[in-house]
Amino acid sequence: MNYNTGRYFAGLKAKQNGQRFESMIDSLLEGYKLAGLCVIEKTPEPMRIIRPLTAGQYISCFTKAAQPDYKGTLKGGRTIVFDAKHTDSTSIYQGALTGEQAQTLEAYHRMGALAGVFVEFGSGRISFFQWAVWRSMEKLLGRKSIPEQSDIAEDFDLIIRTYAQRPL
Predict the structure, then answer these.
(1) If pLDDT is split at 50, 70 and 90, which confidence band does 56 have?
(2) What is the mean pLDDT of the chain?
(3) Per DSSP, what are the bridge partners of residue 127?
(4) E-state strands within the chain
(5) How many angstroms separate the Cα of 74 from the Cα of each of 52, 67, 114?
(6) Three-class SS of 52-96
(7) Which residues of 27-63 are buried (b: 16+ CB within 10 A; e: fewer)?
(8) Collapsing DSSP states into helix, strand and coil, what is residue 48?
């Protein structure tokens, strides 16, 4: 296998894992919505159609940098915004977010929103890192990555259920 083919398949696998993780999140959020705990939706990627093809397909390009993946409101009125990341590794790097995503999470955090990063590790472990922790990981851990077994990770279900009960 040559280098380019290997990179292609690694990229394809990463994309498929990311899509599967987001599909799982979508199902989870639908359950929370039905339970009356929140309304959180996937943020559509800003794109422009370049050329239509056939049967509803087209060639397109992104028109601006990606925003965090999900935005919504918890029961009681608190805003929540987070990005979803999958890694096949046992740690996640701070640089996994784009500059635009980090700026947006920071802005929402400063306005009082619950902001963070939802991560699925290669082992299947899923963790939520609040923005104040994510942006300070080097200060907290002495490096710009968070290991899978970190004690600074939080349980997403517990966060949703706890914050949905708190008044603003």
Answers:
(1) confident
(2) 87
(3) 119
(4) 38-42, 47-52, 58-62, 70-74, 79-86, 91-93, 114-120, 126-130, 145-147
(5) 38, 20, 9
(6) ECCCCCEEEEECCCCCCCEEEEECCCCEEEEEEEECCCCEEEHHH
(7) ebbeebeeeebbebeeeeeeeeeeeeeeeeeeeeeee
(8) strand
Average pLDDT over every residue of 72-81 = 95
What's this model's pTM, rounded to 2 decimal places? Answer: 0.83
Residue at token pair 């989870």: 28
Output the CA torsion sign for 19, 125, 88, 85: positive
Which of 49, 76, 75, 51 minimizes the C-alpha distance to 62? 49
77 within 8 A of 168, measured Cβ to Cβ? yes
Whole-angstrom Cα distance, residue 15 to residue 102?
21
Beta strand pairing call for 126-130 and 114-120: antiparallel
State yes or no: pLDDT of 137 exceeds 70: yes
**Least confident span in 40-44, 97-101, 149-153:** 149-153
Express each pLDDT in 143-162 by its tens digit.
Answer: 999 999 888 888 888 888 88
In 3-state terms the chain splits into helix, strand, coil percentages (rounded to 5) of 40, 30, 35
Cα–Cα nearest to 122, from 158, 93, 148, 149: 148
Residue type, 56: G
